[in-house]
């Protein structure tokens, strides 16, 4: 299925402070856009606009999928979102967290598919442990399973490898490589090692 992202003259402000303005770009299926810049330069804000979690001050972003144009705020079925502040339920197991989020997303997923997802992110065999017993890196891996539940054509990754060890970073490499085969990825990062993912680079200036 075709998927692309068109951003036109996008701007974001908080009160009188403009974070960025006049950002225009296009991301096609199979491409990774990396958004780079200093702390406070607007990377997370840009990603939140693409996720439809907040509205731009000017300009627009649209996904084109299956012959239709979708604004981010009505495109949650197209988007998988990973960010360090994405809350998971500590009192539930990994499997229960995924079942809960699948229900919220109205995705039908059975135990075998959950096991496959947990294997994919290197948490095979740990699905019945409560999140309270997970390390921060393990919890961050689980955010990838959450993002991939509905196999979305768009993955938005804010600080993708924060708290992850070498093996966790390899899992992210694999997730991005697989996503390239059928969709698009946008990565927000200030880790120079993650520039290697970029087919396209959006560089924000000093805040
Ligand atoms: N909810 C908010 N209200 C007011 N200002 C905000 C809000 N969120 C972000 N900002 C401001 O917008 C600017 C960009 O913030 P943003 O979080 O997008 O930057 P970032 O590049 O992701 O930073 P970091 O690398 O630290 O994650 C900063 O000056 C920040 O203080």
TrEMBL record:
User: Gene3D superfamilies per the record?
Assistant: P-loop containing nucleotide triphosphate hydrolases
* Alphabetized UniProt keyword annotations: ATP-binding, Nucleotide-binding, Transport
Q: Cite the GO molecular-function annotations of the record.
A: ATP binding; ATP hydrolysis activity
Task: Note the SUPFAM superfamilies from the entry.
Answer: P-loop containing nucleoside triphosphate hydrolases (SSF52540)
> Which Pfam families does this entry report, sorted A to Z?
ABC_tran (PF00005)
The question of whether Nucleotide-binding is a record keyword is answered with yes
Q: Which residues form the ABC transporter domain?
A: 5-207
Which superkingdom is the protein from? Answer: Bacteria
The identity of this protein, by name, is: Heme exporter protein CcmA
């Amino acid at each position: 299925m075709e998927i692309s992202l068109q951003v036109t003259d996008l701007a974001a402000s908080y009160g009188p402070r403009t974070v960025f303005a006049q950002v225009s770009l296009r991301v096609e299926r199979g491409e990774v856009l990396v958004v780079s810049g200093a702390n406070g330069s607007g990377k997370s804000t840009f990603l939140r606009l693409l996720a439809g979690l907040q509205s731009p001050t000017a300009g627009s972003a649209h996904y084109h999928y299956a012959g239709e144009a979708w604004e981010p705020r009505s495109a949650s079925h197209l988007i998988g979102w990973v960010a360090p502040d994405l809350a998971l339920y500590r009192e539930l197991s990994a499997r229960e967290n995924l079942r809960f989020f699948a229900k919220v997303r109205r995705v039908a997923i059975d135990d075998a598919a959950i096991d496959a997802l947990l294997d994919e992110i290197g948490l095979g065999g740990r699905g019945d442990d409560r999140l309270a017993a997970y390390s921060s890196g393990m919890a961050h891996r689980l955010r990838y399973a959450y993002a991939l539940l509905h196999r979305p054509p768009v993955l938005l990754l804010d600080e993708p490898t924060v708290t992850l060890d070498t093996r966790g970073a390899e899992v992210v490499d694999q997730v991005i490589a697989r996503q390239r085969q059928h969709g698009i990825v946008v990565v927000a990062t200030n880790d120079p090692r993650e520039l290697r993912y970029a087919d396209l680079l959006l560089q924000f200036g000093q805040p």
